[in-house]
Amino acid sequence: MKGFRTVGSAQRFLSSFSRISPHFRAPRHQMNATAHRAELATRFQVWDQVTEQAVAV
């Protein structure tokens, strides 16, 4: 269970993680390294904005 104490805690983490992880998986095979870095930088900026709003609420 990779360090989770219970099956329920693993399930809660994985259900959230499965919604978040695709945001950071850019289609790497379809772009060069420079474009990939720029895309990830943009995605991290969006993530920072979303998490700041979530913490403020």
- Structural class estimated from helices and strands: mainly alpha
Please outline the major beta sheet: none
Shape: flat
Computed CA radius of gyration, to the nearest angstrom: 15 Å
Number of helical segments with 4 or more residues? 2
Average predicted confidence as pLDDT = 86
Task: Report low-confidence residues grouped into runs of 5 or more.
Answer: none
Q: How big a fraction of the residues is strand?
A: under 5%
H-E order: HH
Task: Write down the domain tally.
Answer: 1
- Helicity, as a percent range: 55-70%
- By DSSP, the count of extended strands is 0
End-to-end distance: 32 Å
Question: Could you characterize the architecture of this molecule?
Answer:
- The protein is an all-alpha fold and 57 residues long.
- The chain has one domain.
- The chain has 2 helices and no strands.
- The longest helix has 24 residues, at 33-56.
- The radius of gyration is 15 Å and the shape is flat.
Topology, pairings included?
Blueprint: H1 7-20, H2 33-56
Quick recap:
This protein has 57 residues and is an all-alpha fold. It contains two helices and no strands.
Task: Describe this protein with a few key phrases.
67% helix; mainly alpha; 0% strand; 57 residues
